[in-house]
Amino acid sequence: ATTAYERAFDAAVAADDRIEPRDWMPDAYRATLVRQIAQHAHSEIIGMQPEANWITRAPSLRRKAILMAKVQDEAGHGLYLYSAAETLGTGRDELLDKLHSGRQKYSSIFNYPTLTWADVGAIGWLVDGAAITNQVPLCRCSYGPYARAMVRICKEESFHQRQGYELLLALSNGTPEQHAMAQDAVDRWWWPSLMMFGPPDDASQHSAQSMAWKIKRHSNDELRRRFVDICVPQAESLGLALPDPDLRWNEERGHHDFGAIDWTEFWEVLKGNGPCNEQRITQRRRAHDEGAWVREAAAAHAAKHNGGTQG
Ligand code: 3HC
């Protein structure tokens, strides 16, 4: 028999109402939101590393200013998302500790290296493009604080995606060497970007339940397909080829068919065996340790100004 609380929760989800922090919610609903929001936040702050690698070597002041603004935005996205996770009763320290000890994940995409300046364009166009395709439906997620964080993040992601596209267009229309550099970056970032949407639906452990709770509005494969359909005409406008010989329009399906994804690579990266996993976590732990004095100073300042209570 269900309790009145469970019936109220189910009715709210069915009516597309928002569940707010003070509302009763099933423990499993709370737990899956903490899992997803925390890992989304971890992705944002780890995602600062691949691009930060090029801030000091940007080819112009304009590109450097754009890239600094984007990396700073990613830190802010992490802040919104850790704050959304905290409304569910889990503090940032605990979540960061789980990230640092490998008990929570971050997006597989950030375990790949940024080898040339063109990678900054490929990340903006493809990685932030995939993030937008994934995040727009999350603006309608049943949990209020997560959905509202997504609205603000999606606005900033559009700038991220546009600047990446424009950067690649400049290279593609540049010298033959610049065009080749842009094509090489797209060749390396295309398949890992498709993996960002998660495993195939029949291998997705959480999708059914997350869709029943209206956390996930579309399946992994559905959003992946939507992303491919968006990218094909954009690649044509860029004058760059997507590295998939099986990619073609399927009139009766109304979508593009595309080649097989290397799921062995995906699961290996998730297990920690990607090109940059060790480097990313080591850098993250170092940044956390080196930032301890900032956290202590902020806490001391808060304590002094809150009449001695620990802020
Ligand atoms: N990288 C790492 N782990 C992944 C993954 C990926 N690309 N795709 C799936 N996984 C993990 C899941 O977290 C889950 O493991 P867990 O139980 O330890 O959490 C497992 O693989 C099975 O996958 P499921 O499909 O069952 O899991 P979900 O229902 O959670 O779906 C998801 C995965 C689609 C990524 C979903 O969690 C989601 O939509 N998350 C929010 C979006 C997000 O995290 N985006 C990160 C992209 S990068 C970014 O946003 C930065 C941008 O600014 C550039």
Automatic annotation (TrEMBL):
One of its GO terms (biological process) is phenylacetate catabolic process. It holds the Pfam family PaaA_PaaC. One of its GO terms (molecular function) is phenylacetyl-CoA 1,2-epoxidase activity. It comes from the Bacteria. SUPFAM superfamilies: Ferritin-like. InterPro entries: Aromatic_CoA_ox/epox, Ferritin-like, Ferritin-like_SF, PaaA, PaaA_PaaC. GO terms for cellular component: cytosol. This is 1,2-phenylacetyl-CoA epoxidase subunit A.
